Structure formats: structure tokens, C-alpha cells
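Schema walk-through. Below, the input block comes first and the output block second. Nothing else is stored per chain. Lengths vary across the set, and this one has 266 residues.
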Amino acid sequence: MIIHQQFVNQAIETISTDQSVVGLAIGGSWIHGEIDRFSDLDLVLITNKSVSDHHENMLVYARKLGNLLNAFTGEHVGEKRLLICLYNDPLLHVDIKFVTLEELPVRVENPVVVFEREGKVSNKLSENQAIWPPLDCQWIEDRFWTWIHYISLKIGRGEYFEALDAVTFLRAKVISPLMQIKNHQLPRGLRKVEQTFAGEDLRKLIVTVPAYNAQSIIGAVETTIQVYQELRHVVFPEGIKLRSETEQKCLAYFYEIRELVNQEGQ
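--- output ---
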């Protein structure tokens, strides 16, 4: 926490003399006082004019905040306004999201305002509430069984790395978020599940982690299917259309592949 606070203090000192900056806020673990030695910093830098349109402009601000080792934009997480930074002295991961005051109200959490001019940031945040994107259960059901068929194909062909990646995807995008909703948590993928899941949920999630061999992947897929079917009955709201025929066909194909793997293992 000490190095994080030192970085924030230095950032405030730097931007306080820059009239193009309206404010600075911090999200993530900082909001709930959960920063530890392994945490990164999630900064929101609010400027008068848009900065995120040009990578070099984002770098200009980032370099002012500390000894910048490396930085790249966050298209891979769906946010081009994000600059993912690694600073040195001390070595610290800092994500900087560049927004204007007008863009600030659209947010998934309420950041802690650590610097602002004339209360502009706090006033803008008070105009509405943060909204975490809801989990689209119909989107999941429409895709889940086709994903199972895809994994079955990869197992059958012996392309285990691709099968492993696909099982990992289902764990992060389907099973864990559904478990989080069941436990009255935000659907945040695998974020801190080791600390937030009860023993049985965590055990089930662990069983979906296979080794690099066909039998282990088959077992992980079976658990994934079973857990999904259980969670679906608990979590899905009324009105979700189950893809029963697709489920039946894809399960039959998966069992065919399972039998093939078992025969080859004898």
C-alpha cells in the first residue's frame, strides 16, 4: 500500500499544476481499501479535452506520473481509452483510463476521487449511478452447447491445447460468472474467486482445470457440463429459451468422443 500511496501522491502533485486535467480518481481494489502488495492501480484521469484519440498524447501524461518503463493501449480488453503502464522505482503496474468530464458518468463502479478542480468530478459522478453490465444468460445458452461440440472436436482430433483454451474460456466466461451471481456477487470472471467462493463452489471450479491429456480434458468438460446445468436452473431468470435440441445433439457427440477416448486408452 505504501508504494501505491506514494505513486498517487506524486501523481496528484504532478497534475495539480496542469490545467488541462480536471481530476483524478481511483477504481478497483482502492475503492474498498483492499490494496495489497500485489495490487495494481486503476487510475481514471479526467481531462478537459479528449486524450484517448491519440496514443502519443496518452503517453505524454503517463510519462509525467513516474518512471515509465512500458505502456500499451487496452484494445485486448475492449477499452481503447485505457493505457496499461509499467513503472519503475518502484516497479508498479498502473492502468490509466483517459476520459473527459462528459464521458465520466458511463461507468461500472464509483471510483474514489483523490483530486479535482472546483468539485467538478464529484458533481458529475453524482448525476447517475454506476452500472455493472448484467450477465446475458440467453447469450450464454445460445452458445454453450456449440462450444461443447467444438471442444469435443478438438479432443477427437488430439488438438489438446485448443481444447484446454476452450475449457478455460468456459470457466472464465460462463461457470465462474454464474457462480458469482448465485452467490449474490458481481459477474467478474475469475476475479478473486479463491477468496470469494465457498468451499464447494471453489472445489467444482478446480475440477474444471484439466491436465494435458484426453482423459483429464474429458473429465473437466463433464464437470463443466454438470455444473452449468445445475447453475442454469438456479440462476437463469424466467423467459430464457433453452436450446434443448442443440444440447441433446452436442451431448450425444461429446459422449461419443468420450467413448472413443476410453477405448483408445484401454
